[in-house]
Amino acid sequence: MGKSDQSEQTIQDVLDQHGVSRRTFLKSCLLAASAMALSPLAGTAMAEKLVTMKRPSVIYLSFQECTGCLESLTRSFSPTLEHLIFNVISLDYDDTLMAAAGEAAEAAKDKAMRDNYGNYVLVVDGAIPLAFGGACHTAAGHSAIEIIREAAKGARAVVCVGTCATFGGLPYAQPNPTGAVPVSALVKGKPLINVSGCPPIPVVMAGTLMHFFAFDRVPELDRHHRPRMFYGNTIHDRCYRRPYYDAGKFAESFDDDGARNGWCLYKLGCKGPTTYNACATLKWNQGVSFPIESGHPCLGCSQPNFWDQGSFYAALSTPKWGRAGEGTPSKAGEVAGASAGIGAGVGIAAAGVSRFKRYRRAYKAVAGPEEPQEKNKTEEK
Amino acid sequence: MTDLRRPAAEPDYQGKGGQAEVQTVGFGLQAILNEIAQLLTRFSKTGERGVVDLKSLPLSSGDQRSLHDALGTGEVEVTLNLGGDSYIRETSYHGVWWVQLNNDIGEVGAEYIEVAEVPEILPADRREMGLEAGRLIRNLRAGVLAGQERGVE
């Protein structure tokens, strides 16, 4: 049924090989269209276009990351869009998933880049470390800086998945010892799509790629280069607990009556009002729930610098002078300790400034005069 | 979301009354019903299928139930076994289909009204039918189906 040369296979060939019927594929496309707030007619158009296409080549590079994003994409149930995407694309290189290793793996990547020059999509997962000449991340004798630049040259588009690749994420958080930067700091002059989240929702990753392949263009993006169809609203906008916020009913602790009654988690640190993502509508684990539905505040993981926005459990209205993971004192008895903390903080800040200057010099040496995105920039609604 | 698995409440009408029924529903639903009427008219003239995406409309579950009641229940009901059960039901207006596509765990992933002779997702694919003919012939030649035949006898 299918063609022997995989590079010449159409998506229809692959669907036939996997026993995926027209109805199943069409249903997946209709679900994807619905998730992207597109008309069902667009889902039908997607299906008709995709089956005639040659499998698009995708090269997936991982840098400073935890593999959570790839886990999110692959640990989904089947048959779903996320499952289907692996049938649709030709995943020519992914050092985590591919059986080959060492020179064979590198050769596969080089061949895919050569054969599909100008046409492949580069998916990047993880931040890029610049400090120490890029020595914090090397593979096959090349630094991450060299690898990403080489791979981006022939890419038709670059899709950054996860907050590390899009905004720097955890590696970029203070004190950023490896001088990590987001992919956008190094890749210039290419269509760039950010799919942020720690990790991103599987259907958001798959849907973004499907949209790009089916409609042959970058979807409409927000100011952080994220697809508006998924990042157009805040969690708060679509939260089912929003009526409690409007009514002024808040949980004050995780075990009070407010929490038990499902009231708004704003006072427990929910970052939903400033976080743009689709968790409240698409949800997680095949639509089972999302963090707020499970009783936990939104951490704001799809926003820039979310690790450096103070405590996860401090309300958004709390002044941010602490560092990630530390609570903000709310009682008089804690103020003394807080003052001591300020003293220690000054010392840490001084060390941080010194480190930042070193990192800045390293950045300029590698990336040129342009600055990476400013830290601690708050999201405007 | 309207649960298409449950039989709808017996409507007071079967879509034969036209305008009188429309006047009983709210303003938002009237707009949807008017759009459906236009799509039906267009299809009858041009054969162009039409869709009203219910998930993109701010409908409460009550609104959906009202819409469901206004459209009534028709002659055809289909269950699709494609990665979780999905449901298609013809409304009392011929050619107006209520389509509900669910994911693996039964959550509604897409829900829309389709105006067509048959919903796009239903017909078997002619190319696939050719492949299936080959599979059936191969199975017959290999005797795979012989045991089943004996079982029937």
Task: Kindly describe this structure.
The complex is a heterodimer of chains A (381) and B (153). Helix content of chain A is 40%, strand content 9%. With 381 residues, chain A is of the alpha/beta class. In chain A, a hairpin with a 2-residue loop joins strand 5 (138-139) and strand 6 (142-143). Chain A is globular, with a radius of gyration of 22 Å. Residues 322-348 and 369-381 of chain A have low confidence and may be disordered. Chain B is built from 5 helices and 5 strands. With 153 residues, chain B is α+β, with helices and mostly antiparallel strands. The chains are: A alpha/beta (381), B alpha+beta (153). Chains A and B meet through helix 2 and helix 3 of A and strand 5 of B.
Could you give a short description of this structure?
The complex is a heterodimer of chains A (381) and B (153). Helices cover 40% and strands 9% of the residues of chain A. Chain A has 381 residues and is of the alpha/beta class.
List the helices and strands and how they pair.
The complex is a heterodimer of chains A (381) and B (153).
Chain A: H1 11-17, H2 22-35, H3 40-52, E1 57-62, H4 68-74, H5 81-88, E2 90-94, H6 102-115, E3 120-125, E4 128-129, H7 131-134, E5 138-139, E6 142-143, H8 144-153, E7 155-161, H9 163-167, H10 169-172, E8 180-181, E9 192-195, H11 202-215, H12 228-231, H13 235-238, H14 242-246, H15 257-260, H16 279-282, H17 335-367
Parallel strand pairs in A: 1-2, 1-3, 3-7, 7-9
Antiparallel strand pairs in A: 4-8, 5-6
Chain B: H1 19-22, H2 27-46, E1 50-53, H3 61-71, E2 77-81, E3 85-90, E4 96-102, E5 108-115, H4 126-142, H5 146-152
Antiparallel strand pairs in B: 1-5, 2-3, 3-4, 4-5
Beta strands of chain A, count: 9
Strand content of chain B: 15-25%
Helix content of chain A: 40-55%
Structural class of chain B: alpha+beta
Number of helices of chain A: 17
Q: How many whole angstroms does the radius of gyration of chain B measure?
A: 20 Å
Distance from N terminus to C terminus of chain B (CA atoms, Å) equals 46 Å
Assembly context of the chains: heterodimer
Q: Strands across the major sheet of chain B, in which order?
A: 1-5-4-3-2
Unreliable stretches of chain B (pLDDT < 50, length at least 5) are: 6-24
Helix content of chain B: 25-40%
Number of helical segments of chain B? 5
Number of strands of chain B: 5
Please provide the ordered H/E string of secondary-structure elements of chain B.
HHEHEEEEHH
- Main beta sheet of chain B: 5 strands, antiparallel
